Amino acid sequence: MPEHEQNRGRTVIEVAYGTGYDARRGAVRGAMSREAASALDAAGDPYAVVLREPGRPEAVVVHVARAAHFVGIWAYDAHRRRLARPT
């Protein structure tokens, strides 16, 4: 289930964790809790973090795989097209 953080007068950003991101559907694949993602992180296993404003198609997706020393960041526009390549 997504988590929400809100500060007075600021934009709300939804944070969701999963095994990946389905850009065609604009949905998190293999949704999981923050605790489950933390356990994967501790084990070095891959997971994804999806950041977006609720109700908007734009998203920033962070793929993490500590065992592989990898963090990839992708940004998706309103048409769900990937704008940035992994870093």
Can you summarize this structure?
By secondary structure, the protein is mainly β. It has one helix and seven strands.
What does this entry look like structurally?
The protein is mainly beta. The chain has one helix at 34-43, and strands spanning 3-5, 13-18, 20-22, 27-29, 47-52, 59-65, 70-76. The strands form two sheets. It has a five-stranded antiparallel beta sheet with strand order 1-2-5-6-7. A two-stranded antiparallel sheet has the order 3-4. The mean pLDDT is 89. It starts with a strand and ends in an 11-residue tail after the last strand. It contains one helix and seven strands.
Distance between the ends: 27 Å
Would you tell me the structural class of the helices and strands?
A: mainly beta
Rg from alpha-carbon coordinates: 13 Å
Helix content: 10-25%
Number of domains: 1
Low-pLDDT residue spans: none
Shape: globular
Oligomer: single chain
Strand order of the largest sheet: 1-2-5-6-7
Mean pLDDT across all amino acids: 89
Biggest sheet, in brief?
5 strands, antiparallel
Q: Please give the count of helices.
A: 1
In total, the number of strands is 7
H and E order: EEEEHEEE
Strand content: 35-45%
